[in-house]
Write a structure and sequence with these properties.
- This protein is of the alpha/beta class.
- It has helices at about 20-30, 45-60, 75-90, 110-125, 135-140, 180-190, 210-215, 230-235, 255-260, 270-275, 290-300, 305-335, and strands at about 5, 5-10, 15, 35, 65-70, 90-95, 125-130, 145-150, 170, 195-200, 220-225, 240-245, 265-270, 280-285.
- It folds into two domains: about 5-150, Rossmann fold, CATH 3.40.50; about 170-315, Glycogen Phosphorylase B (Rossmann fold, 3-Layer(aba) Sandwich), CATH 3.40.50.2000.
- The chain is about 45% helix and about 15% strand.
- α2 packs parallel to α3 (about 75-90).
Length: about 325
């Protein structure tokens, strides 16, 4: 098909997504393919109809021989799987999340349909890219063909920003999702002295427990709200340490990649997937407020050691990513 590491040689290739996601932008650049992002703010049904039409019109017009797509959206993956033989292209689906394992045994018909579509796309895609071995084994068990490629460490603009402030600053990278221990972090902050300050990113107004949150927020916590990209990077770069906690297993968080890229010591969740991949430069915590607070104190006690470990981890992850990327390129050449 004509690939080389770092991009395509002759084939027309595009990367299609319905969400503007950093991972997709980074991988599209790495594969040197055109990045096509279709966005609609309509409600779910009309959004799917509008984006499906736009996608198919574009594919028919540009006639790519290879399409990469991001899943989510699962509907995007379904449409491209369905039409790939009709239109005539190879399909690689980047399935970095969205498996919904906790709902596989649900009797809710919505989840039944979701997993039917999910399994169909995993089987019909030529390749599926996942982030870890467990997900690869799952895809392969369904008759699909999976390759492991974690996120590429992002190129951030503020990597050399000096840190000078009186208080010990921790930024909790959050989207106020259900898998993040928001209330537990607030309780942990209340156990810390005012020597520490915790910034929490993300759109807190959409949080399901917003009224409870407002009642218990301590003085040493700042809710930043949603930040534009430049301001978000400045917030991370000016922090002493970064905290990213998810309760979801088999998930590698974007915030942890950002922490490594910036050389920041980390407080991370204690899931097996997180601890195996981000295996140094971090302390791993349960959701108990006392343990979160204790780990913050421990991190600052030896913060220079953790900074050195993050630097080592960055070099290791970059080398590992290049190896895995080369393996996918070789497979594409043989497809």
């Amino acid at each position: 098909m004509g690939f080389r590491v770092g991009g395509l040689m002759t084939s027309k290739s595009i990367w299609i997504t319905w969400e503007d996601h950093r991972r997709s932008r980074e991988l599209a650049a790495a594969f040197a393919c055109e990045y096509v992002c279709f966005i609609s703010k309509r409600n779910r049904f009309f959004r799917y109809v509008i984006l499906s039409i736009k996608t198919l019109k574009y594919v028919v017009k540009c006639k790519p021989s290879l399409i990469f797509c991001q899943n989510p959206s699962i509907i995007l993956a379904l449409i491209l799987c369905f039409y790939k033989k009709i239109i005539g292209y190879k399909l690689v689906v980047d399935r970095h999340s969205n498996f919904k394992f906790d709902s596989r045994k649900s009797l809710n018909p919505i989840w039944f349909v979701f997993h039917f579509i999910s399994n169909f796309s995993l089987k019909k895609a030529d390749f599926t890219i996942v982030t870890n071995q467990y997900l690869k084994d799952f895809v392969d068990s369904l008759g699909g063909c999976a390759f492991i490629l974690p996120d590429k460490l992002p190129s951030l603009d503020c990597t050399t920003l000096p840190v000078h402030h009186k208080r010990k600053e921790v930024t909790f990278i959050s989207t106020f999702s259900d898998d993040e221990p928001i209330l537990e972090v607030l309780s942990a902050a209340s156990l810390l002295s005012n020597e520490y300050i915790i910034y929490i990113t993300g759109s807190y107004k959409k949080y399901k427990s917003i009224e409870q949150l407002k009642k218990i927020i301590p003085d040493n916590v700042v809710l930043t709200g949603f930040l534009p990209e430049h301001d978000y990077q400045l917030r991370l770069a000016s922090s002493d340490a970064l905290m990213v906690i998810t309760t979801l297993e088999y998930t590698l968080t974007c915030g942890a990649y950002e922490a490594v890229a910036l050389g920041k010591p980390m407080i991370l969740g204690n899931t097996k997937t997180i601890m195996e991949y981000f295996n140094k430069g971090a302390l791993y915590t349960s959701l108990t407020p006392s343990e979160i607070a204790e780990n913050i104190i421990k991190l600052f006690r030896d913060i220079e050691l953790f900074q050195d470990q993050v630097s080592e981890l960055r070099a290791e992850l970059e080398a590992d990513w290049n190896i895995k990327f080369s393996q996918i390129v070789r497979a594409l050449n043989e497809m």
